[in-house]
Structures are given as structure tokens and as C-alpha cells.
């Protein structure tokens, strides 16, 4: 888990925002500086520059995730050095908007493309008519499974979490304990949030239109149901606890150590890159449900393009944010889908025959988007806090201590609840 950024979330002393300041009109091509870490992004930048004579994108990979955010927060606070457009994960938008460093794209026509996105995705980047970013990709969750392992041990693809546990027990007995049903990576707050999301938990109640108030409910009954379930799998020797995104984790996916991977829509790309030997052995099935017949879904990850208040030409920067991976930019999305395995948020791309019917060699020719697209469409609303790094740190630290038998699993949520409430109060929020 990345360290919590050292910036203070004071509710006062906010910047005025670049969109309120009049600027002279450009007399020639405008260079827009973009920070992003999307895979295969150079090709997307080259395509944009080739098709636009009045705008040139200058792209920098300033680091992944928290590495970029720390640099971005420093530049925004200093009043110089920030890009015009920045890639932000959806859960980070409230943090950057709290200090008024994101331009309201609604002033530059962003609401005209609202219909290109499903309701839950658009609400992740907006509040009423104010739009703080343009969605790019998302992480609808599903169950990837090793078809060869399922056939070897005569396992049945589960549709509920109860069935999932039953198959885990069957696998443990049949393999002599050599194979786990999956890996529970307690080091990834996004994964944990996705599981909570599916179960109906709402850890936060927060609206950018009322930024001084926040509801905190990290230890809800729904969240504890999820944690208790996974505690049973881990303590029963049915699920492993290797940290996600490590060499050991990918080796487990590439061998017969893990029979399934509870993954996001972008997850297959990472397996393809890090466990190539397992190509053709995987298939994708819907996420198991808590009750038979339900269709509850969660999201793990996803990102957007936001315009910072240091943009000299916010209207042009907004155009870049809306168009570079826009709903009509099929060529850019061909690169994003075929080479980077991004899962698009733009409905016209999602619903296109090319995307829905795309066959993936890595999955034995399966049309996996027939699983991921319905999952994306069924995701419900979910709110993030404006101090997400601290929140994730509390969740992952507490759960790893529980795994090491230093505390109970549900007690880790109780501790996170109290710590986050205290932190929020210290930062000037009114906690509800």
C-alpha cells in the first residue's frame, strides 16, 4: 500500500480555479500538457496529434498512482508545474476537487457527452451540473477461472458465494491442499472496496456539493459480512493471502496454485503480461452473488481525465479530456482495448459489436465482454472520501494485521471506522 500523501486537506484557503480567469485567445497551435500512465498511451497521443492541427499533446508519465498524485499535489499547492490535464483514478477525484484545483468541465460542454456514459460512471466524476473529470476506463468485476484446473478436479463454476466456498473445499481435498480457490490480496484497497460495493456497503456518504460534511460507515453489517466470509476462506486454508501485483502472485496465476481470480475488467491484461504461460487456460464467468438470482456488481478501479486550474486554456484542455478517449474516438479505443486491455466507460464503445463480440486468444477464444459489459451496466452508485489514501491505508493495514492473527477481522473494520472518523474531524469535516 502506498504511503499516505503528506498534504493537508484543509477546508480553507482554496484556489480560485483556472476556469474563472479570462485569458487571451491563442494565435496558433496550443500545446496541452498531459500526465498519465495508461499502457500503450504513446500511440493514443500520436493519433490525437495527427488528427488535430490546432492542438498538440505533450505527454509525460509522471509515475503510477500515488507517485503521480504526490507530484501533482505538490505542483498544485505551489501554483506552478502541474499539467493541463491529469489522469485521476475515480476514487481520487474528491481529494483533488476539495482544494478547488479541478476545472468545472461543465462550463466547456462536458454535459453534452453525459449521455455517452451510464449513470453510475458519470456520477463518479460529477455533482449536479458540475463535471470534474471525463471517465475513461472502469473495472467491473468478474470471476476469471482456470478451465483446466476446473476440469482436472471436476469443479463446477459457482454462481453464489456459498457455491464458491463449496468448490473451494472440494478443490482443497482433491488437490491435497496444493491449490487454492483464489488469492485474497489484502494489500489492495480497490479490491476490498469492490467487494464491499457488490455487497451493498456504502463506506462513505459524501457529495462535492457539500464538501464539509461526510458520513463514515466503514464497519457496516454489509462490510462485515464480506470480511467474515473471506476470513472463513483464509482461515480454512481455502484462499491464499499473497500480496496482489507481486511476482509470487503472478506465478500463482500462471501455475496451478490459484483456480480463480476475482478480477476487474482490466485484470486480464496484467495476467497476459505477467503469466503468459497460462494463455488459453482461462475463462471468465460472472461474479458470484450473495443470493441466488441476484445481479449485484462492484467496480475495482477505473480512471478519468481532469483539467487542473493551472491550464492556461481550460476550454482547449477540456476538449482534450473529452476527445482523447472519447465515445467517438474508435481508433484510440482500438489501441486501448487491443493493446492495453482497458475497459471503456463510453457506452457507444461498450455496446459496439466489435467490442462485445471480440474473441480473446488468452481466454481460448471466449467473448469475455459478454460477461464484463453486463456487469458494468449493473453497477450501482458508490461514494468515495476526499482522503482515499488514508482510508485505503487503514483498511489494508488492519486486514493484514488480522491475517497475521494480531486482531480479529471484524475488529479491523471497527478500528478503521474510529481512526477515519478521528482523522476526518481533525481535517475539519463534520462527521455524520
Describe this structure in words.
The chain is 39% helix and 15% strand. The two termini are 27 Å apart. Helix 1 runs antiparallel to helix 12 (330-338). The longest helix is centred in the C-terminal third of the chain and has 18 residues, at 409-426. The strands form 4 sheets. Strands 1, 2, 3, 6, 11, 12 and 13 form a 7-stranded mixed beta sheet that branches. Strands 8-9-14 form a 3-stranded mixed beta sheet. It has helices at residues 41-51, 66-78, 93-98, 119-123, 147-152, 161-175, 189-199, 221-235, 247-254, 267-274, 314-323, 330-338, 347-350, 353-356, 369-377, 388-403, 409-426; strands at residues 30-35, 55-60, 85-89, 126-127, 130-131, 134-146, 182-183, 204-205, 213-216, 239-240, 260-264, 282-286, 299-307, 430-431. Pfam families: SBP_bac_1. This is Sugar ABC transporter substrate-binding protein.
Shape: globular
- Low-confidence runs (pLDDT<50, min 5 residues)? 1-19
Our measurement of the CA-to-CA distance between the termini, rounded to an integer number of angstroms, reads: 27 Å
Q: What class do helices, strands and sheet pairing give?
A: alpha/beta
Helix content: 25-40%
Determine the oligomeric state from the structure. single chain
- Describe the largest sheet: 7 strands, mixed
Per DSSP, what share of the residues sits in E-state strands of 2 or more residues?
15-25%
Mean pLDDT: 93
Protein name: Sugar ABC transporter substrate-binding protein
Pfam family, one: SBP_bac_1
InterPro entries: Bact_solute-bd_prot1, SBP
Amino acid at each position: 500500500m502506498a504511503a499516505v500523501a503528506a498534504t493537508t486537506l484543509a477546508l480553507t484557503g482554496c484556489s480560485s480555479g483556472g476556469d474563472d480567469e479570462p485569458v487571451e485567445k491563442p494565435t496558433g497551435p496550443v500545446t496541452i500538457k498531459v500526465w498519465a500512465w495508461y499502457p500503450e498511451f504513446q500511440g493514443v497521443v500520436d493519433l490525437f496529434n495527427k488528427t488535430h492541427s490546432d492542438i498538440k499533446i505533450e505527454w509525460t508519465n509522471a509515475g503510477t498512482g500515488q507517485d503521480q498524485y504526490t507530484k501533482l499535489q505538490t505542483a498544485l499547492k505551489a501554483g506552478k508545474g502541474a499539467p493541463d490535464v491529469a489522469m485521476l483514478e475515480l476514487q481520487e477525484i474528491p481529494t483533488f476537487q476539495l482544494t478547488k484545483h479541478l476545472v468545472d468541465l461543465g462550463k466547456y460542454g462536458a454535459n453534452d457527452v453525459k449521455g455517452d456514459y451510464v449513470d453510475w460512471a458519470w456520477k463518479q466524476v460529477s455533482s449536479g451540473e458540475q463535471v470534474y473529470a471525463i471517465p475513461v476506463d472502469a473495472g467491473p468485476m468478474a470471476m476469471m477461472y482456470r478451465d483446466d484446473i476446473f476440469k482436472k478436479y471436476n469443479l463446477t463454476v459457482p454462481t453464489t458465494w456459498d457455491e464458491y466456498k463449496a468448490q473451494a473445499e472440494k478443490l482443497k481435498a482433491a488437490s491435497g491442499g496444493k491449490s487454492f480457490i483464489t488469492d485474497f490480496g489484502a494489500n489492495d484497497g480497490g479490491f476490498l472496496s469492490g467487494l464491499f460495493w457488490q455487497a451493498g456497503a456504502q463506506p462513505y456518504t459524501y457529495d462535492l456539493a457539500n464538501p464539509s460534511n461526510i458520513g463514515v460507515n466503514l464497519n457496516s453489517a454489509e462490510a462485515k459480512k464480506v470480511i467474515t466470509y473471506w476470513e472463513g476462506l483464509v482461515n480454512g486454508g481455502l484462499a491464499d493471502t499473497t500480496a496482489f501485483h507481486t511476482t509470487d502472485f503472478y506465478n500463482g496465476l500462471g501455475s496451478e496454485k490459484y483456480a480463480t481470480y476475482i478480477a476487474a475488467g482490466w485484470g486480464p491484461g496484467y495476467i497476459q503480461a505477467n503469466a503468459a504461460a497460462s494463455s488459453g487456460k482461462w475463462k471468465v464467468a460472472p461474479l458470484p452473488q450473495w443470493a441466488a438470482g441476484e445481479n449485484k456488481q462492484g467496480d475495482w478501479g477505473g480512471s478519468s481525465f481532469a483539467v487542473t486550474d493551472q491550464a492556461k486554456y481550460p476550454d482547449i484542455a477540456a476538449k482534450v479530456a473529452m476527445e482523447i478517449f472519447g465515445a467517438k474516438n474508435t481508433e484510440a479505443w482500438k489501441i486501448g482495448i487491443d493493446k492495453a486491455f482497458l475497459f471503456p466507460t463510453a457506452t457507444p464503445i461498450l455496446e459496439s459489436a466489435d467490442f462485445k463480440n471480440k474473441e480473446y486468444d488468452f481466454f481460448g477464444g471466449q467473448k469475455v465482454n459478454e460477461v464484463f459489459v453486463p456487469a458494468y451496466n449493473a453497477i450501482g452508485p458508490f461514494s468515495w472520501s476526499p482522503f482515499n489514501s488514508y482510508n485505503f491505508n487503514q483498511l489494508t493495514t488492519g486486514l493484514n494485521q488480522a491475517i497475521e492473527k494480531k486482531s480479529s477481522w471484524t475488529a479491523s473494520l471497527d478500528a478503521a471506522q474510529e481512526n477515519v472518523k478521528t482523522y476526518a474531524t481533525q481535517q475539519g469535516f463534520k462527521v455524520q
